[in-house]
Amino acid sequence: MKLLVTGGAGFIGSNFIYYIQKHYDDDILCMDALTYAGNLETLTAAAKSPHYSFVRCDIADRDAVFKVFEAFKPDIVVNFAAESHVDRSIENPGIFLQTNVMGTQVLMDVCRKYGIKRFHQVSTDEVYGDLPLDRPDLFFTESTPLHTSSPYSASKAAADLLVLAYHRTYDLPVTISRCSNNYGPYQFPEKLIPLMIANCLNDKQLPVYGKGLNVRDWLYVEDHCKAIDLIIRKGKVGEVYNIGGHNEMANIDIVKLIIKTLGKSEDLITFVTDRKGHDLRYAIDPAKIKAELGWEPETMFADGIKLTIDWYLENRPWWERIVSGEYREYYEKMYGNR
Ligand code: NAD
Ligand code: TYD
After folding, report:
1. 249, 294, 273, 220: which is closest to 15 by C-alpha?
2. The pTM is what?
């Protein structure tokens, strides 16, 4: 099978490529624009496989995307490519609409032309908005109304609606997954967990927004990859699947756990001005994917966070080169003269 993975040089996309390589012999083409969040060093091991190739391409660049499809002719497209950071969307919403909405439209237009077997949209639980902190009995199901808070989540919700419209109108064989917060190897150190690990290791202050009481439902990235793999092979066309592991934690508790694991002092914690429109709580009900596809998370948070902290300890050069900005020279060095 030929798999086109967009955004494969980012956090979840790269973990997905490694997951597929571990379990199948599929031909994989990673298509990524290499924005600030894309890092080809992450894919060094993946690139050793004869079944893997890479093309630098913006999903919103219609002509370039058509050329890539003409040459590769994928069976399945999994769209991870996105602007993904809420704080950046608050500063600069435009690029979120361009990539997350217009880019998704371009991909689906080209999928229509080439008659692919499946277009899978990797979405987020943030499309449902947030839940109150004092109602632990409430969860997001696939029929919870979309009710977004940030330009990021609004752009993802817009894309989801467009994906469902392409299914209904043009019969495009689509699926959508909406996952909770991921953590694990190769996450860009602008997101909560890797940022706190990197700052802790550098004895830098740990910026906690507001009082740190906001709750997220954390899932180890490999469990997310496994769910997407099940959906693209066994999921029902036209369906949305929620993915989450019933692992809710307040931000401050995560930060304290990281501090304790790394043997640092809680004095590093600095409470800073809250994020604008900050969602209070996310919590997924994963009953549908469990009942229909037999998916369940395999990595408990206690194990996953240890694996993640160990990974950042063992791969210091990977994130230090990101923090210093050096990683951006890698593409030029590797591909500049090719
Ligand atoms: P990321 O920011 O780490 O990676 C995004 C990748 O997309 C990067 O490699 C970047 O270069 C690439 N990209 C950005 N704009 C592009 C464009 N115009 N054309 C081609 N490539 C482009 O993001 P992530 O955390 O790996 O998230 C991947 C997907 O999963 C996103 O769609 C995100 O909305 C979704 N998601 C993320 C989480 C999470 O916790 N990180 C949870 C649920 C869903
Ligand atoms: P983040 O990793 O940006 O994911 P999301 O906002 O998409 O859930 O943030 C996770 C939580 O951590 C969120 O409630 C905001 C908070 N946060 C901080 O308190 N400090 C930080 O430096 C960052 C990046 C996030």
Report:
1. 220
2. 0.97
Would you call 209 a catalytic residue per the annotation?
no
How many domains, the chain?
1
Q: How far is the CA of 23 from the centre of ligand 1 (A)?
A: 23
Ligand 1 neighbour 106 (Cβ under 6 A): no
Ligand lying nearest the CA atom of residue 322: 1
Backbone angles phi, psi at 216, to 5 degrees: -125, 155
Provide the domain limits for residue 150: 2-335
Dihedral angle of Cα 160, 100, 236, 5, to the nearest 10 degrees: 180
CA distance 214 to 267: 20
- pLDDT (tens, 9 = 90+) of the chain, 338 residues, equals 999 999 999 999 999 999 999 999 999 999 999 999 999 999 999 999 999 999 999 999 999 999 999 999 999 999 999 999 999 999 999 999 999 999 999 999 999 999 999 999 999 999 999 999 999 999 999 999 999 999 999 999 999 999 999 999 999 999 999 999 999 999 999 999 999 999 999 999 999 999 999 999 999 999 999 999 999 999 999 999 999 989 999 999 999 999 999 999 999 999 999 999 999 999 999 999 999 999 999 999 999 999 999 999 999 999 999 988 877 776 676 666 65
Of 191, 204, 221, 269, best ligand 2 pocket probe by most atoms within 8 Å of the beta carbon: 191
Which is the catalytic residue, given 18, 52, 128, 152? 152
**What is the C-alpha separation between 155 and 309, in angstroms, rounded?**
31
User: Cα(178) to centroid of ligand 2, in Å?
Assistant: 18
Give just the sign of the alpha carbon dihedral 101, 104, 108, 114. Answer: positive
What CATH number is associated with residue 142? 3.40.50.720
